[in-house]
Structure prediction request, 209 residues.
Amino acid sequence: MSDSYQTAAREGHGIYEEKKSIFYSYISPIETEEEALEFVELVRCERDNMRHVCYAYINRIGNVVRFSDDGEPSGTAGMPILEVLRREELVGVVCAVARYFGGILLGAGGLIRAYGKAAKLALDDSGKATFVSYGVFKLSFDYTHLSKIRHEIGLMRIPEESCEFGEKVALTLCLNSEEELKLRDKLADITSGRAIIEKISEKFAPLRN
Prediction:
């Protein structure tokens, strides 16, 4: 499995008009197929007067690909949406396009172009984000070191995932390998080697600039 991937940065929307037909497009990052289908249903509910809500998604886990023409002629809706996602090399993403029929037939070629353009407009609105694999680490140390450690974390521009106050302070951070080595050295200096840092899991998160 790759240690990085590209997806939609956030939810995005677009509107495209072709010969009085209006195409409302929506895109979102997703983690599971269930999230993808739930997103499509939300679009369907929002556009409940639309005859067609076509979609495509690529799930990162297992690289599962699904698309639907939802009553449009075969190959004229779901596949053009999917091709936009593939061309942009996205995974972990779903795009749904709802069509309002304006009374003028577009033909297969017109539908293919329109659904593809609508999907691209939603992606342009959302933007793309690179997600990379980070180690999730738990730091444990005495309260007397909290301000200095937070100062160093701030200098490294590492966001805190969580902070718990018990017998000791417990900070949870996402770190790449370079950040881990640097922070271990800083912790050793600040706490005279008394801080404990342990890796508890891994997760994908947006690449930090």
Summary: The beta strands are 4-8, 12-18, 21-29, 52-59, 64-68, 93-100, 128-141, 160-165, 169-175, 196-206.
